[in-house]
Design a protein that fits this description.
The complex is a heterotrimer of chains A (554), B (282) and C (112). Chain A has 554 residues and is an alpha+beta fold. In chain A, the strands form five sheets. Chain A has a seven-stranded mixed β-sheet, with no helix packed on it. In chain A, strands 4-3-5-6-9 form a five-stranded mixed β-sheet, with no helix packed on it. A two-stranded antiparallel sheet of chain A has the order 13-14. In chain A, strand 13 and strand 14 form a beta hairpin. In chain A, helix 3 packs across helix 4 and helix 12 runs antiparallel to helix 14. With 282 residues, chain B is mainly alpha-helical. The radius of gyration of chain B is 28 Å and the shape is elongated. Chain C is an alpha+beta fold and 112 residues long. In chain C, 24% of the residues lie in helices and 11% in strands. Chain C has four helices and four strands. The chains are: A alpha+beta (554), B mainly alpha (282), C alpha+beta (112). Chains in contact: A-B, A-C, B-C. At the B-C interface, helix 3 of B face helix 3 and helix 4 of C.
């Protein structure tokens, strides 16, 4: 037998085999060696039985002859035998040399299905999900959508949306408040990092109210469009610090972070400069360096002077004596602070006691036995003097009070000689008034009474022309800081003010800062009230700090 | 370069690449950022616009760009670090990104573009985590089912079985021939990949054909050809079920990527918008 | 090798079977390969534009014209490239590896 193997169009191989049995299979020892995984090691045999050639499958091997699966069959010319991927064709029958019959078989490997082989279908690349959807398409869709909604739209709103005049919010002609265009709403809210604070809600829906120019940070000039009356921290012509410059507003005022961040109260904002202010200002600063409330310098009043000259003589210790004081009705009354010192309407300051309201119950200004109901008017020295004189004038007018002519001054005596008798009486009466009122005014019941509490300015030339030093109540000893009595009303007055021990009104009863530091501490303190700089001090204060020691620098 | 010639072969997973080098790097990065965040107390509170916020934002942006670069590096078959090293870095730095970007935000989230960027980032990383789990678990499941054959080989065997069945079934009557031709159409539709593989897990038509032949055989006791056909159909059904199951696993292995990639592109655009906006309304 | 007219297909010392550029495309090796790993393909040049593929999905290889002669191709373990097989270097999970057969047998022995 001749086996002819056709391989492609170019080369073929020929081999010939003879023998009673010719084995076909995958094994390399087979006569016809067909390397295919679907073929058994020994798949089939060709044998001659008599004049015929039989093909016989070995074991359970499958062979198909002319498309029919057979176990064994006689071969004719033209038969097609299929085993695995190989197709054998019986081509012709020839006479062999020794007279035996010989077959020529062509053996061809059937190319597998291209589509299957190249894996275009039926492999992972073509798995159902991949065929229908595309990552690229989904990415484009999402990317373009985001571009449109979050890039193009807000930028268009910035440049093309109608805007309201921010300054017009303040003018009286603006009636009501109109919302700006609807299409712009999304463009603004998409880029909003946080809600605008309540104070700015009137125009806060429009970004360009404050963000007026793209890529340029909001600076002080944008804020000052409305807040044009805000006061400087220091006189900039004297101190020009970079941190107080154009971006200065934003260091302490944060928008878009909620209402409580609109004014930042962190002490570090202040301490960053004030811890080194002397060096930064080259010694020109009028305040000492501060690093925190627990190391806060003493109040200026205590540093500069130890007493304040108010012009009053007032011993607190006597008035606050626990045994009480006697009033005009001869009753004993124990005085407390509240009897004379009351908080003013806004709660921050104490009203200065008034004589008429607070002192008159005990201190009468009676000056005359002849007119025991009359009391000197308080507050105006000239008025008091006139009152005294008028009192004695009215006493004299009631009659009975005359100065004997011998005691009248010489000038008046001379003049009296020329008067009629009734005129002389009047003259005598007036002369008595003059003498009496003069003695009272400069006596213990006039000047003497005033001198109990006030300092008298004597007049060398005219003993009657004495005056009283004006009382300067030194109401605000704490300048440059606010103190509000209202939150402290649970604290007793004497816990902070040493009035019970004070013997003179010149004592500075403002407590030293140590008293404040016994309750107030830095923000990190755990057992004290956390206190920030802005709790007492105002940043926008307008002028340099004035020292109130009886004279004002304002 | 053949590995394993000089030393025993050890499989290196992308998670343990170079002894968890990128896990260590990412952890160090996260710890540094966390330490900076916890020790620094900005005056206005933790928001994106402090110097710490800008730094963390810059780091996050760099991370995002590095992670996106993986999509390009994946297609460069060049020298240097093997792709499993790049994937190791991608996975661990993606985990670090979630933490660093959240610190950058100061946990301040609201209905705006900034938070949308954060959300897209989180969704991308989450889908990536799912991907890591899938990549760790599913390949072994797939190999177990595969019995060492590729899809093409399975289909070739199915093809061969089909031809044998055709030959055998031609002698057994019309009913069986119809059933067999339906089963063949099922196989060819699987070959063409037309069946949605995410859901289907079996080969119903082939199963029906097998049952039909079984009943036919039982009716006619001891029919040799019938039994042979039945054996062939059993084998075919097993192969088709295996193929279906494999396709199902493979589809699941690809599905997560259909979320991961578009989300990452959305993240890129959103992040660009977020950075642009920060400096537009500075 | 036998049956290759220009003797383009060879086996290297390390065991890789590779096909040189002198292949005339007769197809003998493809038809005779017992492992079915040889294919006939027409050489295509790579389009350099990566972005066109990334953004628009354009094909990264030029289309094959009609009547372009094919050559036989098969995996040759990236024999001419430094760094070893590209598939190993580009496997993201590190699953692909090239190991010699005896080590493979040892590995399988360990695993089973």
């Amino acid at each position: 037998m001749i086996r002819r193997q056709a391989i492609g169009d170019i080369s073929t191989q020929e081999s010939s085999h003879s023998g009673p049995i010719i084995r076909i299979g995958r094994g390399s020892d087979c006569d016809i060696h067909l390397p295919d995984a679907g073929i058994q090691l020994e798949h089939a045999t060709l044998e001659s039985r008599g004049n015929c050639t039989f093909i016989q499958a070995i074991g359970h091997a499958t062979i198909a002859v002319n498309r029919k699966v057979v176990d064994g069959i006689e071969l004719q010319v033209g038969d097609e035998i299929r085993l695995g991927l190989y197709q054998l064709e019986v081509q012709e029958s020839i006479e062999a040399v020794d007279g035996d019959k010989a077959f020529v078989l062509t053996c061809e490997r059937i190319a597998p299905d291209n589509a299957v082989w190249q894996g275009k279908a039926g492999t992972t690349a073509g798995a159902g999900v991949g065929a229908k959807l595309s990552m690229r398409g989904a990415s484009w869709v999402l990317g373009l959508l985001m571009l449109l909604m979050f890039f193009v739209w807000p930028i268009a709103v910035h440049y093309f949306a109608e805007s309201r005049d921010v300054g017009a919010v303040n003018t009286p002609t603006t009636v009501g408040h109109q919302p700006v265009g609807d299409w712009a709403t999304w463009g603004r809210s998409a880029w909003l990092t946080g809600a605008v604070s309540r104070s700015h809600a009137l125009f806060g829906d429009e970004c360009s109210s404050c963000h007026q120019r793209a890529f340029i940070p909001v600076n002080a000039s944008d804020c000052l469009t409305c807040h044009d009356d805000v006061q400087e921290h220091v006189r900039v012509e004297q101190f020009s610090f970079a941190s107080l410059g154009a971006t200065g507003c934003l260091q302490c005022h944060q928008e878009h972070e909620g209402d409580d961040q609109l004014v930042l109260s962190d002490s570090r904002l202040c301490v960053n400069c004030h811890q080194n202010l002397t060096a930064m200002s080259e010694g020109r600063a009028e305040v000492s360096d501060v690093v925190g409330f627990s190391e806060h310098p003493e109040f200026r009043v205590h540093r500069v002077k130890s007493s304040i000259d108010t012009g009053l003589k007032f011993p607190h210790n006597i008035h606050l004596d626990s045994r009480g004081v006697l009033n005009l009705k001869d009753e004993s009354q124990v005085l407390v602070c509240r009897d004379c010192h009351l908080v003013e309407n806004d709660g921050t300051k104490m009203a200065f006691p008034k004589f008429e309201k607070h002192c008159a119950d005990c201190h009468s200004l009676r000056f005359s036995f002849e007119a025991p109901d009359r009391t000197m008017p308080h507050g105006d020295v000239a008025k008091a003097k006139t009152f005294i004189r008028d009192t004695y004038a009215s006493v004299a007018a009631k009659g009975g009070f005359r100065l004997p002519i011998e005691e009248m001054p010489k000038v008046l005596r001379q003049r009296a000689k020329t008067l009629k008798p009734e005129e002389v009486e009047i003259a005598q009466a007036l002369a008595w008034v003059d003498k009496k009122s003069a003695s009272v005014i400069s006596g213990p019941f006039g000047k003497g009474q005033c001198a109990e509490c006030h300092t008298i300015i004597e007049n060398k030339d005219d003993p009657l022309a004495w005056d009283i030093v004006p009382v300067d109540p030194a109401m605000v000893s704490l300048v440059g800081a606010r103190f509000d009595h209202a939150p402290h009303r649970q604290v007793t007055c004497s816990a902070c003010h040493g009035a019970r021990e004070s013997k003179a009104a010149s004592d500075v009863l403002l407590p030293k800062i140590g008293k404040c530091q016994s309750c107030h501490g830095p923000p990190s303190a755990s057992h004290l009230l956390p206190t920030q700089c802005v709790d007492c001090h105002s940043f926008h204060q307008g002028h340099a700090i004035a020292v109130k020691t009886g004279e004002s620098k304002r | 370069m053949i590995s394993g010639v000089d030393q025993p072969y050890q499989s290196v997973s992308f998670l343990s690449y170079r002894r968890f080098l990128y896990l260590k790097l990412s952890s160090a990065l996260v710890l540094i950022c966390l330490a900076a965040y916890l020790t620094h107390e900005p005056i206005a509170g933790h928001i994106g616009s402090t110097w710490l916020g800008y730094t963390l934002g810059g780091v996050s942006a760099g991370l995002v760009l590095f992670l996106l670069w993986f999509g390009i590096q994946k297609r460069r078959y060049g020298q240097g670090t093997p792709l499993s090293g790049w994937l190791s870095g991608h996975v661990y730095l993606g985990g670090a990104l979630v933490i660093v970007a959240t610190l950058h935000s100061g946990f301040e989230l609201g209905p705006n573009l900034h938070s949308l960027t954060w959300l897209l980032m989180v969704m991308t990383v989450l889908s990536g985590v799912i991907g890591v789990i899938i990549y760790c678990r599913y390949p072994t499941l797939l190999s177990a089912r595969r019995r060492g054959l590729t899809d093409a080989e399975i289909l070739m065997q199915v093809d061969a079985l089909d031809r044998q069945c055709e030959v055998l079934g031609a002698t057994l009557g019309n009913n069986i021939e119809d059933a067999l031709s339906q089963s063949r159409s099922e196989a060819s539709s699987m070959r063409a990949g037309r069946r949605l593989s995410v859901r289907a897990k079996d080969a119903p038509l082939t199963h029906a054909a097998r049952l039909l032949v079984e009943r036919w055989c039982d009716d006619r006791n001891d029919h040799e050809r019938g039994r042979e056909l039945h054996a062939l159909l059993v084998r075919k059904e097993t192969l088709l079920c295996d193929l279906c199951h494999q396709r199902h696993l493979v589809a699941l292995m690809r599905t997560w990527l259909y979320f991961h990639v578009p989300l990452s592109v959305g993240l890129l655009v959103a992040m660009a918008g977020h950075v642009f906006l920060v400096f537009f309304y500075w | 090798m036998i049956d290759c007219p220009p003797d383009a297909i060879k086996r290297s010392a390390n065991g890789e079977v590779y096909i040189e550029d002198s292949c005339i495309g007769c197809g003998n090796c493809e038809k005779n390969c017992p492992y079915n790993v040889i294919q006939m393909a027409a050489p295509r040049s790579r389009r350099p534009n990566f972005l066109a593929w990334l953004l628009f999905g354009k094909d990264r290889f030029e289309k094959v014209g009609a009547n372009v002669p094919e050559q036989a191709v098969k995996c040759d373990m990236c024999i001419g490239i430094d760094g070893g097989p590209a598939c190993v270097r580009s496997c993201p999970t590190g699953a692909a590896a090239r190991i010699s057969p005896d080590r493979l047998i040892n590995l399988l022995g360990v695993q089973t």
